[in-house]
Each structure stands twice: as structure tokens, then as C-alpha cells.
């Protein structure tokens, strides 16, 4: 782990220790670099839809706005950069998206830590360093060097494919955990709504997103409300606002009921070590169900789960204070 990566890790740990100073909700989660970019993309698409009727955004516009946004938020000079079209609306939509999702991005957390003096001076992260981390300058340079020095072979291509599978497995498992902690995390939901395949493609997500906006709910709460309505009163009981979702009842029911199963584990098993392992095991079996043992994705999920299980146990062992359900009314697992 590089020095910069360790500094970012310390920053996140500081946020987790001092979360009441950042937010009035203990369920607030960190929006990392990749999620920041996705949030910006969705925000730009939403602004384009409002102004032009198309929920789309070009890659060139996204990257240009991304670069401008980072410089703006970090207070770095952007005199030679042209303000992107509708930037004020996009920035407002971006901030609103994070607020709805109960998330804070790395820049907001870093700036808050500095303002409150929560980190030692030698652990503060300079804006330029934060820009380097979020924009991935170091990784890009390393990748370019690797491409230039190493000829493309079948072995290299296989390695790249394995890396993609590993990243997908990690993103899938972590997104289930993120949604379990923060049900307003629409980005996590977007990653796992159709993983494994539930027949919930782009159309289903778009329908769900539009209905949730009309009802002013998070996407997960909207899905849960819809399925509960169906379960209690049948399809005919759903109001006209639910009409676009009726075609997705089976997939949404599968998704909501699985999250219910994870939440039951959290609420019923008081020992956090046991609950953590049970949650990870349940997610693993859900992701690999129906796949052959030799499937690379199955192996990747197994490795991710083992790594996360160890990390969870280490976190629990290192904690100084233990929550006791009888005195707090909150499950220690939560």
C-alpha cells in the first residue's frame, strides 16, 4: 500500500470514528472515486433529460466535467479550463444525489477533517494529492508503463480478464454490504439489482428510478414499498404510479426478499463475528448459485469473501468499545 493510499485509509477511519461531526445519520457512507464519477454521470444525464429530454451523456463531456468538478471542489486553479455547459445545474444535481443517497464524497470528508482539526498535521492530504488519488494519475501512469514495456500476449489478456472478474466480484459483494448499511445508496443498488441475473436490466432500473423520483423515495425504498403493496393486496392493489413496475414484479420481489434475509441476520444474530460470516456466506451462495465450480467468477467471489471475512474479524477485534444490545437497543452487528 502506498503512502497516499494509507493517508486516504486514515481519512476514512477518522470519518468512521467521528461520524456525528459529519452527519446526523450513522448510516452515512463514503462515496469513493469510482462512485463519485458514476454519481456525476447520472447527475449530468438527469440535467440533460430536464433540458433536452434525453437521459444520456457523452464520455467526452463526462470526463471534461469530471476534471472541472475535481478542481472546483478541491479549490485548485482552473483558470485555463473552460467551465462546462450547465455546470452549476450539474453541480447542484451532484450534491443533491449524494444527499439523497446519504453519502459524503472523499473531498467533502477531507475538507471537513481539516476544518475540524481531526487529523494530525503530518496526516493531512494536500489538494493536489487528493486530485492524484481520485483521478487515478498514479494508476494510469503505471498502466501505461506496463503496456509500453510488455508485449500483448494471450497470458496478459487472460490476466486482464481475471482482473475484471475479480473487480466485478468485489464490487458485487461490497455493494450488498453497502446497501445493507445504507439503504439509500442508489449506486450500490444499481450495481447489484441484476446480479445475479433477475431479469432486471436497464429498463427496469430506469422505471424504478423514475417512479422513486415521483414518490421522492430512495430507489430501494421504492422497490420495497412496491413489493410490499403487491404482497399485501395483489397486483391490482398497486396504484397507477406503480404501473411501470408491474412488468418487473418477479425480479424485484427476488431482490427485496434477499435483502430482507440479510437484514434478518443483522437483527437476530447479536455476535458480530458470527453475523458477519453468515452475511458473507449468504451473499456468496446467492452470487454463485447455478454456476459451475470451475467458473472464474465463483473463485473470485470465494476469494473476496474470505478476505472480507478476515477484515471484519480484525475490525471487531481492534475495537475498544463494544455495543451491548441490552443497553443500546441496537444490534452489535448493526
Characterize the structure shown.
It is built from 15 helices and two strands. The chain is mainly α and 334 residues long. The chain has two domains: 4-137, no CATH class; 161-322, PCRA, domain 4 (Orthogonal Bundle), CATH 1.10.486. α1 packs across α5 (106-116), α2 (33-52) crosses α4 (87-100) and α11 packs across α12. Belongs to the PARI family.
CATH fold group of the largest domain: PCRA, domain 4
Query: How would a crystallographer describe the biggest sheet?
Result: 2 strands, parallel
CATH homologous superfamily classification of the largest domain: PCRA, domain 4
What is the CATH first-level class name of the largest domain?
A: Mainly Alpha
The CATH architecture category of the largest domain equals: Orthogonal Bundle
Count of spatially separate domains: 2
Spatial gap, N to C terminus: 29 Å
Strand content: under 5%
Radius of gyration, whole Å: 21 Å
Please estimate the helix content: 55-70%
| Overall average residue pLDDT | 84
Strand order of the largest sheet: 1-2
Tally of contiguous helical segments: 15
Shape: globular
Family: Belongs to the PARI family.
Protein name: PCNA-interacting partner
GO biological process, one term: negative regulation of double-strand break repair via homologous recombination
Subcellular location: Cytoplasm; Nucleus
